[in-house]
Design a protein that fits this description.
Number of helices: 2
Strand content: 15-25%
Strand order of the largest sheet: 1-2
Order of helices and strands: HEEH
Number of strands: 2
Oligomer: single chain
Length: 65
C-alpha cells in the first residue's frame, strides 16, 4: 500500500475525524486532507511528467501546512 491509498482508505473510514492538528486545534479532517493531497499530487504529476510506478520522495518539515 502507498501513501495515497492509505490516505484514501482513511478518508473513507474516518472522513470527518481530525487528520491534522496543531496543538489542541484541529486544522483539517481526513476528507479535506485527502482532497487537498489528490489535487497536489495531480499537479505534481503533470508538472514533472510522472507515470504509474514512478517513485517520489517527500522531504519536508513536520507541520500541517
Amino acid at each position: 500500500m502507498n501513501i495515497a491509498a492509505l490516505l484514501l482508505k482513511s478518508s473513507r473510514s474516518f472522513g470527518e475525524r481530525p487528520a491534522l492538528a496543531l496543538g489542541n486545534s484541529v486544522t483539517s479532517n481526513y476528507r479535506d486532507t485527502s482532497k487537498r493531497v489528490a489535487i497536489l499530487a495531480g499537479s505534481i504529476r503533470e508538472l514533472i511528467g510522472l507515470f504509474p510506478g514512478d517513485r517520489v520522495a517527500i522531504a519536508m518539515k513536520n507541520c500541517p501546512e
